[in-house]
Amino acid sequence: QGVKLEPIRMNRTGTKGLAQGLGDGEEAVGSAQEAELRKLAGSHKMGTDARKAIFMVMMDSEDYLDAAEKLLRLKLQEAQAREIVRVAFHCCIHEQGWNPFYAHLLGHLCSLDKRHQFTLRLCFWDAFKEMPAWTATATGKSKVANVAQLLSHVWATSALSLSLLKPIEIEQMGDGGHLCLKLCFRAVLLQCGEHTLAKLVDKISGADTEMAELRAGLKWFFYKHMKAEKVKERCGFGGGQDLPSGKINKVSTDKKVLLPQRIQSFVGLLNKCAA
Description:
Layout: H1 31-43, H2 49-60, H3 64-72, H4 78-94, H5 100-112, H6 114-134, H7 138-156, H8 174-191, H9 194-202, H10 209-225, H11 255-274
Helix pairs in contact: 1-2, 2-3, 2-4, 3-5, 4-5, 4-6, 5-6, 5-7, 6-7, 6-8, 7-8, 9-11, 10-11
């Protein structure tokens, strides 16, 4: 069962069946309540009937599984169905603080249909293009932080891979993009286990030029913005030198100690791909 997660902190009414007429089993709701949510949808530029219906279903859901089930019952055309991911992404980054509801919903949708994965990739690419202007305001910086949290979630859960960054010139992302990646990688490195981190790198270990350029861009970023050190043979997740036989290198649970260890280990994994 899904965890109870509030979809959005914007005058949520808790009404049921708001997208009536677009799917089976929808219940009628009071006109005042529906009008309130339609106004809210309009303020978020949900300009089409499909976007409004998707938005209102998300506002009405008990958790991400409930939302996914209701969204699938909308019986949208293929072009309209792509708006599900776009609307969820929009709501996620415009939250006043991080709300994991959308991350769980988007991850679940990606597991159901690979077309949702592609749409989500497009959403991230569009966000990266807009980020240079976001850092000028507190609201914009909040959007950057929310994108970073969402990106860390989809990478940590394998909903998307690091190849998302293949078309991106990491060195040219600007302050907003670099802040996003810094926040994202910090979360990924601290939250993921060794096996998950190794799998992330393994998926971009190909010998083709695009993957090689992506790894080079990531290493540049880690040296420039994550304070990675250029040292040799430091690829283990313990972050230290080889130990005598029989001794165990304990990984610290102190974030101030663990993060530098994980940074060095991650760069080590990238270097091993090129070996």
